[in-house]
UniProtKB/TrEMBL annotation:
Lineage, opening ranks: Bacteria, Bacillati, Actinomycetota, Actinomycetes, Micrococcales
Entry-linked Gene3D superfamilies: 1.10.1660.10
Coiled-coil ranges from the UniProt annotation: 72-99
Keywords: Coiled coil, DNA-binding
Keyword DNA-binding attached: yes
Organism: Microbacterium commune
UniProt xrefs under InterPro entries: DNA-bd_dom_put_sf (IPR009061), MerR-type_HTH_dom (IPR000551), MerR_fam (IPR047057)
Segments forming domain HTH merR-type: 7-75
NCBIfam families in the cross-refs: HeatShock_HspR
This protein's name: MerR family transcriptional regulator
Family annotation (SUPFAM superfamilies): Putative DNA-binding domain
């Protein structure tokens, strides 16, 4: 069972959150804490819902309005979703880096074909054009300037 599994009936959730069941119904109606539903329409609360109910109670006791609390909960959900997405993208980037041998440079040959150049190979600028070269501008700028300098 994870934190998002809707397992608690309204009476149990109200007891765990320290609230009256009618308060949970009101929060559901106004969209503040919306539980899952069974096929029959009964509310089922997850541990995350109960944590949100406790947070709502705390914020409300400190004087925060229900619309402000609703906005805060929406922002927390968005942050949670964005963190999940960042983790997914970091994993995909890590996998891509592990599956790719070194840095690749692509160039267009004299007849227009795209060619992959080995790392470290210089191209003849009169006959080939670099299409893409992955560089970090701030880190590689001094190296790039030295590479582009005319040979002496």
């Amino acid at each position: 069972m994870d934190a998002d599994s809707p397992v608690f009936a309204i009476a149990v959730a109200a007891e765990l959150a320290g609230m009256h069941p009618q308060t949970l119904r009101q929060y559901d109606r106004i969209g503040l804490v919306v539980p899952g539903r069974t096929r029959g329409g009964s509310r089922r609360y997850s541990m995350r819902d109960i944590e949100q109910l406790r947070e709502v109670a705390q914020l409300s006791s400190e004087g925060m309005s229900l619309p402000a609390i609703a906005r805060l909960l929406d922002l927390e959900d968005e942050v949670r979703m964005l963190r999940r997405r960042v983790n997914e993208l970091e994993g995909a980037l890590r996998a891509e880096r592990e599956n790719r041998p070194g840095v690749r440079v692509f160039a267009a040959g004299a007849s227009g074909q795209v060619v992959t150049l080995p790392s470290g190979r210089r191209i003849r600028r009169s006959t080939e054009v670099v299409l893409w070269h992955p560089r970090h501008a701030a880190v590689d700028a001094p190296q790039a300037a030295a590479a582009d300098a005319p040979d002496a």
